[in-house]
Structure formats: C-alpha cells, structure tokens
Amino acid sequence: MASRPRASTEEVYARVRADVLGGVYAPGERLKSTPLCEAYGASVSVIREALSRLTEQGLVESEPRIGFRVRQVSVDDLRQLTSARIDIESLALRYSIERGDMTWESEVVAAHHRMERTPMLAEQATPCISDEWAAAHACFHGALLDGAGNSWLLGMAATLRNAGEFYRRWSQVHEPDRDVTGEHREILEATLARDADRAARALARHYQHTADILERALTERAAAQHS
Questions:
Q1: Domain 9-70 carries which CATH code?
Q2: What is the CATH number of domain 75-225?
Q3: 15-19, 70-74, 137-141 — most confident range
C-alpha cells in the first residue's frame, strides 16, 4: 500500500497556526512531535519548522529540554502585551502618517472598506468573530503601519498583533454594545487627516478597550475554575 504524501511546510504551518488560533489546543498545552506528525501528515522536521515559526510570532513558546507548548495566558501578560502593542504601533503609525504617500493612503482606505463590508460575526448559535472579518481586521491594522518604512518596527508590531489575536480568539468574547466600526473609522479619519496625535490616541483607546474586555473574561474564567 502506497504511503500518503507528506504535507508541505507551508501547508502544515498554516494548519497548525489556524488550530492554535482556533482553540484546538489549550493555552499552555504541550505540542508533542509524534501526535502532531500523525495529525498533520508531516515529518518531524516540518513540524519543528512550523512550531519555530509560531514561536517567533508569539503564538507558541519553546522551553529548553522540554519542547514546545501553546503560549499561556494571564492578566499580567495581557497587560504587558497591550502596553507594548500600544507603544510600538503608535510609533509606527506616527511614522506612517509622516512618511506615507498617496499609494499608502489608498491601501489604508481599501483595507478599511473591505473590513467594513465583511460580516463581523460568524453565522452560528454562539456569537463569535468570523475568520473573514478577523483577516480583514488584521489587514487594516497592518495597512495603517505599512507607510512607516521600517521593517524592524513592522516585524515587532506583527509579532505583538499575533499574540493579541491569540488572546481575542481564545476568549471568543463579543460585546454587542461596543461600537467597533466607529472606533476603526475614527482611527482612519485621523490618519487620513495626518493628525498623528489624534490617530495615536484613537489607536490606543481601541486596543485598551479590547484589553479591558479580555481581562474581564480572563478574570471570570479564573473565578469559575476555582468555584
């Protein structure tokens, strides 16, 4: 009987990343090579490459002599992550506003348009963010910073964004009364007006609002586990 073909590195990486973000593996769960090789039809080297890339993105943690595990979650970590993300992305946004050209502006507007036209919630019994909107949302925030012209800064911002996405996906929190559309539109308008101070404040409020919601969810889950 012929053996099934091995999956490519890119395919395995994309599948493992989607499963980590999608909550298939719990925060802090060990990611052992043998079960992963069987689950994804890949060699040990391909699995290790995928996990190493996810470690660089802040979605997986690597420990000497122990191996890989899904990143853990905590209120303290969330606070530090949010603070770092606000600092890094505010700086990058200021650079974008200062240096970005008309092409950059057009890409920001297009990314915002796609996000606004994409349904935010998935069609299922329990309200949760749709994968399509999550992707459009990431593209919009990435587009805002693309005019900065500093690949190191953008790399740090991307890593922090991935970690923030992990928290948001893991919590599956949705606040129907929150005006997410208005928050994004305020960021967009301030950016296009080249008002760096207003744009940075709007971005910071947006991320802090999300962090506050996630912190409440973390606290409530911890209380439920100990009750």
A1: 1.10.10.10
A2: 1.20.120.530
A3: 137-141
CA–CA dist 159, 111 (Å, integer)? 20
| Per-residue pLDDT tens digits for 153-193 | 999 999 899 888 888 877 766 666 789 999 999 999 999 99
Where do the structural domains in the chain lie, given as residue ranges?
Answer: 9-70, 75-225
Burial (CB count within 10 angstroms: exposed 0-12, middle 13-18, buried 19+), residue 63: exposed
pLDDT in tens, 17-39: 988 887 788 888 999 999 999 99
